[in-house]
Amino acid sequence: MIFSVYSIKDATIYERYGNLNTGLDAILEVGKTFVNDTAYNSRALVKFDLTKLTDNFTNAILTQTASYYLRLTATEASEIPLTYSVYAYAVSQSWNMGTGRYTTAVTSSNGVSWKYRLSSTNTGSAWATASFNNGTTGSWTTTNGGGTWFTASAHSQSFDYSTSDVLMDVTATVREWISGTKSNEGFLVKRSDADEQSTDELGSLRFFSKDTHTIYSPRLEMRYDDSTYLTTATLVSYTDEVALNITNLQPEYLDTAKPRIKVTARPKYPDRSFATSSGYLDNYRLISSSFYSLRDAHSNSVVIPFDESNTKISADANGSYFYLNLDGLAPERYYRLLIKSKINSTEQYIYDKNWIFKVVQ
Fold this sequence. Notes:
With 361 residues, the chain is mainly beta. Helices cover 7% and strands 39% of the residues.
């Protein structure tokens, strides 16, 4: 299962504009620019409410079984190097998102900025720049500030000859948040200190923020294997063509629903035999290397990918099935299901039959 929670607040902080708040910008930026040979960096802050996780799953699953990934969807990259890395740290001080925008006023005082956590008019809310609490630190190149974070919470993702979405394993930090070991103040996303302080031109990475008005808001993905595979039902043969269908899919589901999706499979042309019932009514199970995926029906964007560890299709005496927890999906949108059976390393079948449903509030 892959279950997503969306960001509840985010902002970019700019070293060049120490008081600027960008809480309502549609873009998050991680970048570096030079002005008259002086380097200025930008970093992104993003926080997630974990209530939906604790409401839907047991503590054992959340802190022992599940893995967590920070997903930031790229919208633009300019003048970036061929190879680079992005880092995410657990923020160690609280901050306000604010209601400012980059284009409105470079002296915006409402909300988080490079220098201040809460507001530039609240001089007592400056980010710590010395005498850091035990286990925390901060850094800057030109202007004091830039956030503070836990030194033992470094997560990273490297890119080679590519620009891509960030999909970063942040399991250790999220488990600490859920267990209460660390306070959840979100992530600070940045380049490495060495890159930020170098004289190299590193360009800019831009990602959709929570105010993007698209489906690409920052997400925290929880992934774990919830499948059970019993061999009591007859295994469908892939020697001949397989007729596959989803028989109980409803046109609409509430966003709190957790439907069990039933997958029926049978040979498209059953062997002729003398029997008291039709061979077309026999129920079969898919092979164990079968998986489901979910896409946004309008944009065709992947919402839940074919993950061979965490989107396995289960089987019991009645055939194949899987569960969807719709609490992790954006409501008032249509989604399309796909199914894949992986026969071996080179042969696979993907079934896409416009199995579409809508999630409503």
